[in-house]
Amino acid sequence: MQADTKIIKCAGTPYEIGFAHGSGASAEIHDNIVIYDGFFQDRAKINWEEARQRASAYIPLLSAKYPDILEEMRGMADGAGKGLTMEDILTLNTRSELGLTNVADGCTCLSQQGPEGRIFLAQNWDWLQVNLVVLHIISNNSPFQMQFMSEAGLVGKVGLNSAGVGTLLNGILASAQDKDKFPIHVLLRRVLQFASSFDEAFAIMEEYGLASTCNIVIADAKGKAGSVECSPHGNTVIPLRGETFPYVGHTNHLYSSGRPVMAKDHPEDNSFTRLARLEELTRQDNELGIPPSFDSIRTRLCDQQGAPLSICLGKPTDEDVGIDRVTTVSTIIMELSHGVVQLTVGRPCDDPPILEWTLGGMQ
């Protein structure tokens, strides 16, 4: 793992959790604001102040339905200092709603059942080279501890909780938005904070809804898993399939047959080729009797067929600017039935060092 990636323990009240995050990752949060200021100007044609104004439209909803998360954002702003406000942190946490109607994260996700009830979640996250942190959160207002990889300043992303519920995320390029529903990264945090099973996670998604379009892969320690295509028009579960080591994969396009007719996306061609290649590699392993494991799944996520737009995305060149500098930023593989997580920062095909943690180590 890159030496400058921080692991930050945040405990206590919502404000105290936010303050620990903000003070522990102050430089990274400020740097991410600079990155997203440029991103918003490039893709959404708005400056940071305009982005703050748009993000503030979510304050009434969150004040009514999730006030603790706004208090955490307030603490984060105070902890990060240099004049940041809760609205600045909220703007980071609505970056999908503000910017991904113009461009989507590239991600390759997989959930697969293994022998003896093992269940895996795995993801390559392809995006701009933002500042990452690992957050270990012990909240006074949650029965579960959480540990997840996130962009500095974001309240939720991909990881798991001490009940064994894990989350992955695919960005989807789509225009639909609903400010009466939760922003994606806030919803991910709500799931990790309160869900003890796949069914509870899906119930949270149904209760609060998604403000914009995405795909969230969820699994629990008992082995129930699915890929949930989410939009403001509704959510659709794609179940695992296959008899031997059943699995479901997802990239950056909608493909569930039962999705709402109003759910429309605008994918890049490489989303289809990455998904087809992931499914091909997974079928090959299944046919050879190779069970899913940290090593076998990592091998699939290192695949470079079709480079540079491959599962392990190519490196940006010196000539690339803006969104053309997207690359594989991190890889996370979780085995939920035993509560083991392996995270690498950088392209997995470059063999970066592995950070491992366990549910037992979260106590």
TrEMBL record:
The keyword Transferase applies. InterPro entries: C45_proenzyme-like (IPR047794), Peptidase_C45 (IPR047801), Peptidase_C45_hydrolase (IPR005079). Pfam families: AAT. The keyword Transferase applies. Keywords: Transferase. Residues 114-348 form the Peptidase C45 hydrolase domain. GO terms for molecular function: transferase activity. This is Peptidase C45, acyl-coenzyme A:6-aminopenicillanic acid acyl-transferase. It comes from Beauveria brongniartii RCEF 3172. The lineage of its organism: Eukaryota, Fungi, Dikarya, Ascomycota, Pezizomycotina.
